[in-house]
Amino acid sequence: MRKRRHGPACSPADAGPVDAGPVDAGPVDAGPVDAGPDAVRTGHVAGLLLAAGAGRRYGGPKALVAFRGQPLVLRSRAVLVTAGCAPVLVVVGARAEAVTELVRSGVVRNPAWPTGMGSSLRAGLAALEVTAASAAVVTLVDMPGVGVEAVRRVAAAARPDALAVAGYHDGRWAHPVLLGRAHWAGVAASATRDRGARDYLRQHRDLVRVVPCADVADAQDLDVPPKVRR
User: Fold this and answer.
1) Is the separation of the CB atoms in 194 and 4 below 8 Å?
2) Do 118 and 53 form a contact (C-beta atoms < 8 A)?
């Protein structure tokens, strides 16, 4: 699981929601995702959205960034819900109160978020232990190019002993990532700083199923605002 920057060791940004404007993040679903009553739920594959970072380079937490008229945290959660994941948990950290006010339910607070994404992954997996989920699909809040179809494809590999990643061009592995329940303890033990599940997946690469997603998703993350990109 690759992530360059998430939850840096600094104080939470005080800035309010940042409007990203018409960001071009590849093939995303048109308009805000609707997670209404027609969303199909599998009941056995959980969704875990990591949304705790401070977004220092972005100017504020990316969970609060407006993307096509909707905060990224709500858009990303709706993708998991619409894809059929249940329950869907959102790990928050920087500006936790503001993000929690938007999400309202399924929130997991990570007080150790400044140490990096690894602590958020550990917090989310620990919260899922009390559920009946056999596997969890993990996504990041700053990847709006990952939509419903990519999540569904990866989730289709779900089993308690399964490991799966989305495959992109040039053999690149990225999100969504599926972690079977039998691997949660091992992933949590290896998740440190910003490394998430990457080390565990590499150590067990013979078990990892790579699910092609380049035709339906873009694994680009929102690193800096469009106005400062080159």
Assistant:
1) yes
2) no
For the segment 44-73, the average pLDDT, to the nearest whole number, is: 90
- In the predicted model, is pLDDT for residue 230 greater than 70? no
Q: For residue 113, give the DSSP letter.
A: G
Written as one letter, the residue type at 107 is: V
Provide the pLDDT for residue 135: 98
Cβ neighbours of 117 (radius 10 Å): 29
Q: pLDDT at residue 229 above 60?
A: no
209 CB-near residues (< 8 Å, 6+ apart): 157, 162, 163, 164, 165
| Cβ neighbours of residue 43 closer than 8 Å, sequence gap 6 or more | 86, 132
Read off the tokens for 161: 């002993």
pLDDT band at 226 (very low <50, low <70, confident <90, very high): low
Distance of CA 2 to the CA centre of its chain: 11
Structure tokens at 56: 């220092």
Return the pLDDT at 224: 62
**126: helix, coil or strand?**
helix
Sign of the Cα pseudo-torsion (25, 29, 30, 33, in order):
negative
What secondary structure letter does DSSP report for 171? G
